[in-house]
């Protein structure tokens, strides 16, 4: 069962992946220092799993394979229609 999809677009920036792993492992340290090893082990496991999925299994997509965004399409349409009158509905 896969809990984290490493190919999801939300995980594309490196800082997001580092932040997720850092928060999980940081929370683990906090739990261990406060004397609650159960939650420390759980959050450490979540951090290790996140590191495995987001760094070891992460395969960046080829930029040419990414679809164009709607913003780029709108900009291209606006550039193509510059100077042309819009049809009336």
Structure description:
It is a single chain. This protein is mostly helical and 89 residues long. Helices cover 57% and strands 0% of the residues. It contains three helices and no strands. The protein has helices spanning 14-33, 37-56, 70-80. Helix 1 (14-33) runs antiparallel to helix 2 (37-56).
In whole angstroms, the N-to-C terminal distance is 51 Å
What is the C-alpha radius of gyration, as a whole number of Å?
Answer: 22 Å
Q: What characterizes the major β-sheet?
A: none
Number of helical segments? 3
Order of helices and strands: HHH
**How many beta strands in the DSSP annotation?**
0
What count of structural domains?
Answer: 1
| Beta-strand proportion | under 5%
Low-confidence parts, pLDDT < 50 over ≥5 residues?
Answer: none
Helix content: 55-70%
The overall pLDDT average reads: 81
The computed structural class is mainly alpha
């Amino acid at each position: 069962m896969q809990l984290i999809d490493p190919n999801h677009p939300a995980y594309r920036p490196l800082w997001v992946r580092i932040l997720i792993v850092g928060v999980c492992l940081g929370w683990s340290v906090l739990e261990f220092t406060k004397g609650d090893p159960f939650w420390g082990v759980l959050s450490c496991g979540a951090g290790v799993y996140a590191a495995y999925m987001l760094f070891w299994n992460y395969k960046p997509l080829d930029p040419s394979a990414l679809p164009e965004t709607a913003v780029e399409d709108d900009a291209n349409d606006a550039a193509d229609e510059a100077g042309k009158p819009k049809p009336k509905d």
